[in-house]
Amino acid sequence: MSSASVRFWGAPRRRLLGAACSLIRPSSPGARRIVDMSYSRQFLDFQGSNIPASMKKVVVTKLSSDFREAATLHRDAPVPLPGDGDLLIRNRFVGINASDINFSAGRYKATVKPPFDAGFEGIGEVVALGLSASSRYSVGQPVAYIKYGAFAEYTVVPAKEAIPVPSVKPEFLTLLVSGTTAYISLKELGKLSEGKKVLVTAAAGGTGQIAVQVAKKAKCHVIGTCSSDEKSGYLKSIGCDHPINYKTENVAAILKKNYPDGVDVVYESVGGKMFDLAVNALAIKGCLIIIGFISGYQSRTGLPSSQVENLPAKLLHKSASVHGFFLNHYFSEFKMAMKHLLTMCENGELVCEVDLGDMSPEGRFSGLESVFRAIDYMYQGKNIGKIVVELPHSVNSKL
């Protein structure tokens, strides 16, 4: 067996001393042979490159809804060691979410104090793992995950929380937070059925694009708001029946004219005036699902300014409802949703558009340094699909 064929770190964690590695003999027929690298001077990953001692990662050092003010790129953070049940993932792509600045502002955990690591989701390869984790995973295996601290070159993820994926493709990042949010919320709260009219706000974004397609799969009539003709074209290409460019069209007037009886389900992520408009557009027994309110995230309080008056009376008048949806409260449905979405994606039944920033002023989002401008780009409303940052890795083989 080659000394580079399998790499494990087991518990307890040890300093890397000496240069010897030993072969643990199998205790029973059929057991796996494991190369114990605990005393190796250097670890090599499955492509034959050294796993470095330090890495880059983005750390929140000050609570602020201005991500550039809140976060700092650390260039010499130690590469973490996986424990017995952990995987060490070399991140190849990380996902950008509107709520990254809610996290950097300390809105998700009232007790959190800086410094803490930023980022929610990533995808990459397993480059090292603990002994227990080796029963389910192997070095070189592509995996995705949701975990705080994803804006890093390497991340330790408990094996039980990792999500095996067919390959390291950025498209799979569209499913982790955005895809499962759309799928579970519409399934659990929207109760979609053929013929229902569904309004999706910010429909060309990372989450909206999945919501449009989930609703179309349920044979609904889908209306989508967006901010450009290019986005309208994209929405038509994924099956949206009636894209509305709110920059050039009067959304309220169009909805009143074309849908005088209102819409049955609203998938809402913008807040502010768009939320007000959505409430007014609800049909009798309509349902509005709030998955976010991006218009307020950059404010001091994190809350949008809403002009809806007498909301209880409006809901009562229509026997309508408003539901909030936060993915953390639906993790019991997460694996089921991911399995379904992955199958759809692999079978070509779901378009998972990613925006790597190729059309942004400074070009492609490459390296952790570009996380900051990727977040700016999202809040400027420029993206079509899920914003993803690539973390290039050049293989310098030692094999």
TrEMBL record:
SMART domains: PKS_ER
Record GO biological process: negative regulation of fat cell differentiation
EC nos: 1.3.1.48
Family annotation (CDD domains): Mgc45594_like (cd08250)
One GO cellular component, as annotated: peroxisome
Protein keywords: Oxidoreductase
Domain of life: Eukaryota
Pfam families linked: ADH_N, ADH_zinc_N
Family the UniProt entry places it in: Belongs to the zinc-containing alcohol dehydrogenase family. Quinone oxidoreductase subfamily.
Name assigned to this protein: 15-oxoprostaglandin 13-reductase
